[in-house]
Amino acid sequence: MRSASTQQPGSERPVRHRPPTGVARTAPLAALSRVPWAEMQDSTGSAAAIPLLLNGIAWGDAGTALAALEDLRKRICQYGFVTEQATAAAVPFLWELAQLPHVTCRARIIGLLKAIADARQWEDTAAAYPKLLNHRENPVVWERAARKAVRARRGELNHLLTEPDTDIARASTELARALAD
Q1: Phi, psi of 46 (to 5 degrees)
Q2: For the chain, how big is the Rg over CA atoms in Å?
Q3: What's the half-sphere exposure (Cβ side, CA atoms, 13 Å) at 16?
Q4: CA-to-CA distance for 57 and 72, rounded, in angstroms?
Q5: What is this structure's pTM?
Q6: What are 29-60's pLDDT values in tens digits?
Q7: Which residues face 77 on adjacent strands?
Q8: What Cα–Cα distance (Å) separates residue 150 from each residue in 16, 35, 46, 64?
Q9: How many C-beta neighbours within 10 Å does residue 8 have?
């Protein structure tokens, strides 16, 4: 079993991000505050830091956004295939970020969505050890909910598949293949 994080959510330094000049202030990620992040778990314990990371991806420069995305990936899709309780809640925001032209790491966000769509670690483990399904914390349910969340917004791929950026188009094509089954 995982141990809880010893770092308190309040000890993380808040990062203030401002939209780049010329970007409409239509409040991307406006629904972040409606999600009870502190009541969910990620790979570090409390998922309370996820809104800060998503905002870092949305409004940070290329280095900040990439660092925030890497931290987020470790928290919601550790090792590229282990999902967590907070993963499904983060997926709609990843889809939103993948659509925003000013976000600097869109291809990697799409790659993360593909990793979540492909995740079957807990399900495969439960097939070999069915007692896993009897635990109060049921990671198989979390994994299935995360995959379902990715599939729920697959219609947004149409726009991404036509992107002139070849990295975004390639990542979108790979995600489309993963969702085709």
Answers
A1: -65, 140
A2: 16
A3: 0
A4: 9
A5: 0.81
A6: 999 999 999 999 999 999 999 999 999 999 99
A7: 83
A8: 28, 17, 22, 25
A9: 10
